[in-house]
Specification:
Chain A: One of its GO terms (cellular component) is plasma membrane. Chain A: It is found in: Cell membrane. The complex is a heterotrimer of chains A (198), B (95) and C (647). Chain A is 80% helix and 0% strand. Chain A is mainly alpha-helical. The longest helix of chain A is centred in the C-terminal third of the chain and has 34 residues, at 128-161. Chain B is built from four helices and no strands. Chain C has helices spanning 3-6, 12-34, 38-46, 51-79, 90-125, 133-152, 180-208, 221-252, 266-299, 307-320, 336-364, 373-396, 398-404, 408-438, 444-470, 487-517, 556-563, 583-599, 603-622, 632-642; strands at 575-577, 628-630. Chain C has a two-stranded antiparallel ribbon with strand order 1-2. In chain C, α5 runs antiparallel to α6 (133-152) and α8 (221-252) packs antiparallel against α9. Chain C is globular. Classes of the chains: A mainly alpha (198), B mainly alpha (95), C mainly alpha (647). At the A-B interface, α1, α3 and α6 of A face α2, α3 and α4 of B.
Chain lengths: 198, 95, 647
């Protein structure tokens, strides 16, 4: 395994560079996935039948909280990668733990929100609108959940093996994933919530 | 130490993303719908590019050309699917 | 649930199938035990990460699925061969045309192409393996899990019966209450994830693992076609993922996406399905174009005419493939503006495709043409595919389509596109690359006999359907009365179907015959080929290239042969190889059970299987296997042996 010392650890081997490149391609596929969910949502948004509409349902408070939490977690995972490149294992792990805690907080609010929606008479089975809304949010939430599991697995590996070209590569790819989830959320925030409240 | 752990680029990116979020909130006031959609589109696209460039370092990889093409194709496909479907079912529906 | 709801009962054909499944499974188990092949099977195949072996497994699976889909097809033709035929009832007929479509497209055409891709692409670009060998094994086992899940549906629970496009509301829980369409949503979902990963893997492989000096514009055409196909895959398959997810939610969790009340929109399914479905057509047909380009250029003994325009036309096709999907439902209710737009984009696709046809013809022009079996398939492809293309342009005209829509004319059209475009291509590629994998050619004389049977019978089977369609016979009708006058042409089509069956039996017999009697090839280059895969001994050693060649131009190997220079006379170094892994296989099994339990909404076992999936993935994440090295002496020895020198 040839290691190229002129590059950051995560780009150090050919395999690592391939993995990062491959993950960018995967995010292209994820863009297509969420675009399809947005398509479904935009087509069905006004078809709320006898159930509540977006304007009836959305409350800006928790949504803003979710947005700020996710933006902050995206910031901290960026800092984790930055520390990693400086070779600061402890700091990197701290930033990563903060990221995961923020992710869990986001998820907590989202689950609370779902209960609130169901309480307001907007279950996933109520209307085409609620089905598409909750599926879009749920898919994003499932990605966050998977991210929490994945991030924890990587954190354990960093603790066990330290920062080598493998763990660095995994952490970097995880950071890409996490930023991507933030990008998706920005579009949900803008074109689901704010547009619904307009 | 603090300066080392919190590089300016990241902090600026973070603050900018918070500011953009707050700007987007103006659509909650009563403005013409077209203006509001325009504001949302601009702030969302800026936010996304911010993440892509400042946090995800899309430009640092040796294949950045392929990555830009990949993202461009993904966005093309996303827009085609969204607007094509709206074209079929909403704007171009036989009524 | 009672046992007679679990197993499909009451049909002698199905009982026969059940008995034969049990017998074949028993025979395999007993055979493996008797010949003590369990260890061999596990070490050499189930755990392999070698792209060549994975390719062979794909092709083997595709051939089995070709048999299954072919039996479905013959049964359909038999049922419609005469007026008021009583061979199958309506329900059984519905199930059979559904499984025929799904299997032929997703479990035959795609894996066959993936098999050829797997075997050939690394060899053509001078790579030791694909970029992510273990992911490649995962892709295969997910595909296989999906295929098996789909196939057991006809004995356990009942097959999907709403057509391969599974339109709502028919495919919804209200009109299809049994589990058939749950199989559809889950089997396709699982194999679709595998397909997406294959797409990713091959883009990275082709973009990053080419031999030094091989720029993009020096790649063989098959490699180009696979690159572009993979790009289409990664942007089209997520749409299918979402569509199938929503289908599952609608059927099993009571959501309202495609229902007829509470705001649901059944037409949205058709829309999403074809947003994926049309690019899917190009996913199966572009690699075929690549295969034909290779074969035509090899056997015309000329370099490919218009290389650059070939690449550009494929890029244009890949872009346009995302812009035409509404032509599948012109009659659904959208306005003239929409239909006009999609008519134009659809007809526009004929332009780059036409460019390719002319390029092949100009490659043949003044060539020293050798009529080998793969070449015959390629030559037959050109005119037959053109008929398919021309009728496609007829269908593309929205106003005229109101006449043809959902008639046998359409059925004839897409068989005229997909059979020459994809099936002939994979058969041609199979004959062409067979010696590379197994070290001997398929017998030419027997291959040509099969070819003539297939080519003539194909036309006898499908040409009558154009006329039946124009006379008003709709697709998917399981019977008709004598007064319709559809009888004679349908009987003719049945005759053709029998001929096709004989053709495929001859093809398989040829594999058997050649294995036993065909002389072994010692040169590694039996066809006097042009691209890098022919520079290696056959069968190819596990590490592929002992030394990675340097590339200076297109068809490097061909010119090296002309100049009498060797591509492999550099110093041999130790070679890094990935280790085998059983985890992809285990993941496939876990996914199979996850899918199976979800089909029947057995949630507790489903959750257990889901946890098994996650744990297997976690085990892979914690795995720190770095592979192993093959030492220089071993490489030198094996190269000498493969090149026929005495060790």
């Amino acid at each position: 395994m040839k290691i190229d010392a002129t590059q950051p650890l995560e780009y150090g081997t050919e395999e690592n560079r391939n993995k990062i490149f491959g993950f960018w391609l995967f995010m292209g596929a994820e863009i297509a996935l969420f675009a399809t969910l947005f398509t479904v949502y935009f087509v069905l948004v006004d078809r709320f039948a006898s159930g509540p509409s977006g304007a009836d349902l959305f409350v800006i408070g928790p949504v803003l909280a979710e947005t700020f939490i996710l933006l902050t977690s995206s910031f901290t995972i960026g800092l984790a990668v930055h520390s990693m490149r400086l070779g600061l294992k402890k700091q990197m792990m701290i930033f990563m733990v903060i990221t995961l805690v923020l992710g869990a907080a986001f998820l907590g609010i989202e689950i609370y929100e779902f209960f609130h929606y169901v309480h307001e008479g907007a279950a996933i089975t109520t209307s085409a609108f609620t089905s598409s809304l909750l599926t879009l949010l749920g898919t994003h939430g499932a990605h966050v959940t998977f991210g929490l599991l994945w991030g924890t697995a990587i954190l354990l590996q960093v603790r066990k093996y330290g920062l080598d070209h493998k763990t660095a590569n995994k952490s970097f790819i995880f950071s890409l994933y996490w930023h991507f989830l933030d990008v998706v959320w920005i579009f949900i925030f803008s074109f689901v919530y704010l547009k619904g409240l307009m | 130490m603090l300066k080392q752990l919190f590089p300016v680029k990241h902090v600026v990116g973070y603050v900018a993303s918070l500011v953009l979020t707050l700007i987007a909130l103006v659509v909650l006031m009563d403005l013409p719908a077209a203006v509001e959609i325009g504001i949302l589109a601009v702030t969302a696209i800026l936010q996304a590019s911010l993440q892509l460039v400042m946090f995800m370092h899309i430009g640092e990889s040796s294949e950045k050309k392929s990555l830009y093409i990949n993202i461009a194709f993904a966005i093309f496909m996303a827009l085609v699917t969204i607007f094509g479907t709206l074209f079929i079912f909403v704007w171009g529906w036989y009524a | 649930m009672k046992w007679d709801e679990f197993f499909v009962t009451g049909d002698p054909l199905i009982y026969g199938a059940m008995v034969s499944i049990v017998l074949v499974s028993l025979a395999i188990l007993v055979g493996l035990t008797y010949f003590k092949k369990w260890g061999y099977l596990w070490r050499e195949w189930l755990t392999t990460v070698d792209h060549k072996k994975i390719g062979v497994m794909y092709i083997l699976a595709a051939l089995i699925m070709l048999f299954r889909g072919g039996v479905d097809a013959v049964m359909m033709r038999a049922q419609t061969s005469m007026p008021d035929m009583k061979f199958l009832d309506g329900q059984h007929y519905n199930e059979i045309f559904t499984t025929h479509g799904v299997i032929m497209i997703l479990f035959m055409a795609m894996p066959f192409i993936f098999g050829l891709m797997n075997v050939i692409i690394p060899l053509q670009i001078g790579a030791r393996d694909v970029a992510f060998p273990r992911l490649n094994a995962i892709s295969f086992w997910l595909f296989f899990a999906g295929a098996m899940l789909f196939n057991i549906s006809f004995v356990i629970g009942g097959s999907p019966d709403a057509g391969w496009s599974a339109y709502f509301p028919l495919a919804g829980i209200e009109f299809s209450p049994h589990v058939g369409n749950n199989y559809y949503s889950l089997a396709l979902q699982i194999s679709g994830i595998g397909t997406l990963m294959t797409g990713l893997n091959f883009i990275v492989t082709i973009m990053k693992m080419r031999a030094p000096g091989m720029t993009l514009m020096k790649m063989p055409m098959f490699t180009w076609s696979v690159l572009i196909t993979s790009v289409i895959i990664i942007f089209a398959f997520p749409v299918l993922t979402v569509a199938l997810l929503l289908m599952m939610f609608d059927r099993q969790f009571g959501t309202q996406f495609f229902t007829m009340q509470n705001g649901g929109m059944d037409m949205l399914w058709a829309n999403l399905f074809w947003v994926w479905g049309h690019p899917e057509v190009y996913i199966v047909v572009l690699p075929a174009f690549g295969i034909f380009s290779e074969i035509i250029s090899t056997f015309a003994k000329k370099n490919l005419y218009g290389y650059k325009s070939m690449v550009i036309s494929m890029l244009v096709i890949s872009g346009l493939s995302f812009l035409v999907w509404a032509h599948h439902f012109y009659t659904m209710g959208q306005g003239a503006m929409v239909n006009g737009f999609f008519s134009i984009t659809t007809m526009a696709i004929a332009v780059p495709t036409g460019v390719k046809i002319f390029n092949w013809l100009f490659t043949l022009h003044k060539g020293r043409i050798e009529f080998t079996t793969p070449m015959l398939y390629s030559l037959a492809f050109i005119p037959i595919f053109t008929i398919g293309g021309v009728t496609g342009v007829m269908l593309a005209m929205a106003s005229a389509d109101y006449q043809y829509h959902n008639t046998m004319f359409l059925v004839a059209h897409f068989h005229y596109v997909l059979i020459p475009g994809t099936v002939f291509a994979v058969i041609a590629g199979f004959h062409y690359w067979f010696p590379k994998v197994f070290g001997f050619r398929l017998n030419e004389r027997r291959g040509k006999t099969a070819f003539w049977f297939i080519i003539i019978s194909f036309n006898v089977t499908f040409f009558p359907l154009f006329f039946l369609g124009l006379q008003g016979m709709t697709r998917r009708m399981y019977t008709y009365s004598e007064e319709t006058g559809f009888g004679p042409l349908n009987m003719l089509s049945m005759v053709g179907a029998i001929g096709l069956t004989i053709g495929f039996i001859l093809l398989v017999y040829n594999i058997y015959w050649s294995t036993r009697y065909e002389p072994r090839d010692t040169t590694g280059d039996p066809w006097d080929g042009r691209s890098l895969e022919w520079s290696m001994p056959s069968p190819v050693p596990v590490y592929n290239f002992a030394v990675v060649p340097e590339i200076t131009k297109r068809d490097e190997f061909w010119f090296a042969k002309q100049e009498g220079k060797s591509l492999s006379d550099k110093k041999i170094e130790k070679i890094h190889m990935p280790s085998n892994s059983g985890k992809p296989f285990i993941l496939g099994i876990a996914f199979f059970f996850l899918g199976f339990f979800v089909v029947f909404s057995w949630w507790t076992p489903a959750i257990v299987a889901g946890i098994a999936v996650l744990l297997t993935m976690a085990a892979m994440s914690f795995d720190r296997d770095d592979g192993y090295y093959i030492p220089v002496e071993e490489v030198v020895q094996s190269e000498k042996r493969l090149r026929g020198e005495r060790v």
